[in-house]
Amino acid sequence: MNKIFPSIEAAIEDIQDGSSVMIGGFGGSGAPIELIGALLHRYRKTGSPGSLTVINNNAGTGGIGIAAMIDAGMVAKMICSFPRTSQPRAFTERYLAGEIELELVPQGTLAERIRAGGAGIPAFYTPTSYGTDLAKGKPVAEFEGRHYVQERWLKADVALIKAETADHKGNLIYNKAARNFAPLMAMAARTTIVQATHIVEPGAIEPEHVVTPGIFVDRIVEVADPRQEEVLVREGATQ
Amino acid sequence: MTAKLTNAQIAWRAAQDIPDGAYVNLGIGFPEMVAKFKPEGREVIYHTENGILDFGEAPPAGQEDWDLINAGKKPVTLKPGAALFHHADSFAMVRGGHLDVAILGAFEVAENGDLANWSTGPGSVPAVGGAMDLVHGAKRVAVITDHVTKGGKPKLVKKCSLPLTGVGCVTTVYTSLAVVDIVNARFVLREKLPGMSLDELQGLTGATLLVNGGVKDLIVPEV
Q: Is the pTM of this model over 0.95?
């Protein structure tokens, strides 16, 4: 088995217009900048894939990553918990102009919805958001004297993920807190595409150390010297 | 009228009530300041939503690892014995009742423990982050806040007027003037600034302050 793709372009070339795309990362930590870059390049050249629904904790910062996708006009909808970042211009402009849809989800509910999507659980109950505006229209039930809100699973066509190390079978290790949503998204997407800083032979990752088992990963590309979103944003870079 | 506490002093006061060995989540912004005032000799393990237990202070400038940040997107360090985990595990710690204390900011707190701290209403980009999760599950949910708004209106109220973060979730409020516990859906005054009369404090509070067996002086050092 070998899930290594020859190029980053080949790994993303079949993502369709209107796809739902989970993008790993929390702010700049774990953002797969090179996979996003390849998608941006394809969109600018061919006009596709557009009308995307992007799922991430945030909605992009500065002119990099998801913010660059929004600026390019590829994103029709964001599903996220916190679209206000240090430099939220790209999303804010489009949102206030009514040009992008927002589904605001509490952060823990977002994580659990994605986990549920990957785990085959169509709905679950959580105490989060009970009695608030974000619970409006959702079924409520009482368990052991407390109220809980029903939330539904969240799945996607594609997940774009940054890992530190991958083996040919797709087993992954992340760098520190860059892990965040990535293991959940890898489970919940039909096609999970990973950019890895290091690619190693099967067996080189201790089985005890595997964070995302390879069954959740479809495609791997090597990006040996990945750029870090926060560093780029601080440099004022655009993508 | 006695000078109200500074934000640093409110944070100091809240820090004194964090027990040794507690697992604690500090909200983004002002609540992060509480960590600075951890009493000597106590061990506190800090949790951050994005998947770290036992993180420490920011690294020196130039030595940041931007893959190692807290929920406020600020660089942090790992203490010996730290743990990393994904977002679903992180919020299992939150909702599952495993955190001892969560400390958040507030726009308004109602006497029944309702909290409003995420939205000032329509007109801006809404953002909620982990606040709605954090208010459910931690054994104690404490709020640190000025006692009144910049315009002088009470932040401790009968009923919140702003969109709620959670219902009946706050257990203690540390303000610039007082420490108030929420017991059986009522404000119970635990401490107040010594120079301030109960009437004066009540006048700045939007719901009745009950006194159960005496009020202690709120005494905080210069910090």
A: yes
